[in-house]
Amino acid sequence: MSRSSFYEFEDLVATVEDATWIVPQWDSPESSGSFSSRLVSRVLKWQGLELRRIPRVQPVPLNGHWDLMVFFCLTENDLKQLRYMPQWRRHCSRAVVWIGEMWLRKVEKFAADLRLFDNFDEIFLDFGETAEVLSKRLRRPVHYLPFGVDTQRFSPLPDAPERTIDMLSVGRRSDANHAALLDYERRMGIHYQYDATWLTDVHDFADHRRQLIHRIQRAKCFLVGPAKLNVPEQTLGQSELSARYLEGAAAGAALIGESPRAAQFQDLFDWPDAIVEWDMYSDDSSALHSLLQNPARLRRIHNTNVVQCLRRHDWIHRWEDVLSKLGYALSPTGEARKQLLSERADELMSPSHPHANFAEKVR
Description:
This protein is an alpha/beta fold and 363 residues long. It folds into 2 domains: 4-144, no CATH class; 151-315 and 342-361, Glycogen Phosphorylase B (Rossmann fold), CATH 3.40.50.2000. The protein contains 14 helices and 9 strands. The longest helix has 18 residues, at 295-312. The chain is globular, with a radius of gyration of 23 Å. The protein starts with a helix and ends in a 14-residue tail after the last helix.
């Protein structure tokens, strides 16, 4: 599930560039393996046990030469898969790597493999603190590049659905906030929708994204928090932007929760009421109550969040940032998308536009 937003970005790049997909395949866990592995497996099965073989990436033969190769990683461990593409660097003039999640605590554990970064011309990370530390340790330029979102898909326009969900929580949340929301739901009769199960595997990422979009577009308020907010033993105090902030804002929901402490966050979400602050350890629901009792404020937030994302936080803006670091420009198709998003934002801000007050549908 964590890779879904990256898949969305990869799809966008494929639509605006003359791109070639290189998709490593995994060995089937059911494949036979070595003779010794099969023997051990049979002995264990005879004893009522089971040996599960860890799947491996199949070698990827490369044919051709490309101007630019972009390697997407969810975590730093994905970099190790490059060993299955022998001499890959000879097949591209320039190369960049983009890592979605690399926590500071992993830098030292990954120290022996930091040399893998030497193969790239530019390095991009979604985590600002980690980017700052790595920039002092690597011999290649390191840049902070935040998450983006497909604003064309997440925007509730032109046919904005009615926002029938008062508060929506997707994925990670704090126990204190959740308890407060359950209590508020019981007392006030609001519609609080949340995930009651925790699933990490997604069989169809496009369907998963479609369902996520439909839910957020129907939410008045969307609970947000820093990446991995409920596992402090993994973050060790590092507070970074998660994709949920952008997904919620792009779909027009009011974001309520705790802002990341990352310095870059204030530059990314610098408009009024971008975040309605609510401490993740608080069981006081007054911030939500105040918001739900002010329809005019909600309408303004819904409208502004969509506009800001159209103008600044689409994946095309992130792709443009990558290209600019390499001295490249957006393709005509990429420029056309960027222009279209800007025009939609301008139209939405115009009082004469039929959907300028689309948030009036808030009940």
